[in-house]
Amino acid sequence: MIEISVVVPVFNEEENLVPLFTAIEKVMQTLSVSWELILIDDGSTDNSWKNIVELSKLHTEVRGISFSRNFGHNNAMHAGMTHSKGKSVITMDADLQHPPELIKELFQKWQDGYKIVQTKRIDSEDFSFIKRLFSKLFNKIFSLLSGIPMESGISDFRLLDRVVVAEILKMNDHELFFRGIIQWIGFDNVQIEFKAHNRLHGETKWSFRKLVRYSSNALVSFSIIPLKLGIWVGLFTSFLAFIEILYIFVRYFQGETIPGWASTLTIISFMFGILFILLGIIGSYLGRIYETLKNRPKYIIGSQTESDS
Ligand code: UDP
Ligand code: MG
């Protein structure tokens, strides 16, 4: 029986894979547990898949799954969990920003009985100012709208007990937002802190576009409050309009008509702006319902290493 499955999404990480394996193997040897490493190639365009296959030939612990294209790292983690066999599952990044030595502590806490061992990054050398600002803003908005507290620094480096993984795999969300799901799901959980290293090789795989898509997807899947925004904006603008009409009547009976097509135009374009934003919000939820209804798979597997079939 495998004790620990380590699940790692891989997107163009060719140079990081061997150091990653070596570091994990070292920790596992000190723990002397049976383990496996599942590497999910999320549509890499470099030699990542070739390296994964090679690693799997050299080491029986390594299994590889290759997506037919890039499906995003949440979906890659999902695939890894689906194929994992361990009594506990650890997810971590391939770039060694999540220190493998911490696995020891994760394992310890799990043995103490915690079903979820979450890690929190206390200081990251790699983080740009913009990214920090963006993530702060996102966490604030997310917590406010979903009612689920989202601290900054919560990372995708965590250990989940098999019972938690089983619950997650039952969920039918179109794209699982793991950081939210983990907060939502309950169970006995504990948090440990770590200091993130710099990326070993390569660049961050998060473009601004990807980040925006990821965040709006997370919000839409955890809150329906934006849908109700229209009601409040509508009430407010109706109130303004009411006052304006009153004012116009009063002036009319005082014998004055009010010139000012410019102000009228401003108000109209302002209203249209709000209207379009609200339509967009409704559209994004509608899109999500559509995606869920289509019931397409979260990902498509192109190939797998031999030991897995
Ligand atoms: N990743 C992925 N698919 C993507 C983007 C990223 O599988 O579309 C993987 C990536 O290879 C890494 C992890 O997700 O193992 C986190 O990505 P990255 O280190 O670039 O994120 P950052 O640490 O900069 O937030
Ligand atoms: Mg990283």
Précis, in short:
The chain is α/β, with parallel strands linked by helices. The chain has helices spanning 17-31, 48-58, 73-83, 103-111, 129-146, 162-170, 178-185, 208-222, 225-253, 261-294, and strands at 4-10, 35-41, 62-67, 88-91, 116-124, 154-161, 189-196, 301-304. The two termini are 18 Å apart.
Please write out the topology.
Layout: E1 4-10, H1 17-31, E2 35-41, H2 48-58, E3 62-67, H3 73-83, E4 88-91, H4 103-111, E5 116-124, H5 129-146, E6 154-161, H6 162-170, H7 178-185, E7 189-196, H8 208-222, H9 225-253, H10 261-294, E8 301-304
Parallel strand pairs: 1-2, 1-4, 2-3, 5-7
Antiparallel strand pairs: 3-8, 4-6, 5-6
Helix pairs in contact: 5-8, 9-10
The structure holds uridine-5'-diphosphate (UDP) and magnesium ion (MG).
DSSP helix fraction: 40-55%
- Percentage beta strand: 15-25%
Number of E-type strands = 8
Succession of helices and strands: EHEHEHEHEHEHHEHHHE
Strand count, sense and barrel status of the largest sheet are: 8 strands, mixed
What's the pLDDT, averaged over the residues? 88
Write the CATH homologous superfamily of the largest domain.
Answer: Spore Coat Polysaccharide Biosynthesis Protein SpsA, Chain A
Please indicate the count of domains.
2
Q: What gyration radius follows from the Cα positions, in whole Å?
A: 25 Å
Structural class: alpha/beta
Strand order of the largest sheet: 7-5-6-4-1-2-3-8
Shape: elongated
Q: CATH fold name of the largest domain, please?
A: Spore Coat Polysaccharide Biosynthesis Protein SpsA, Chain A
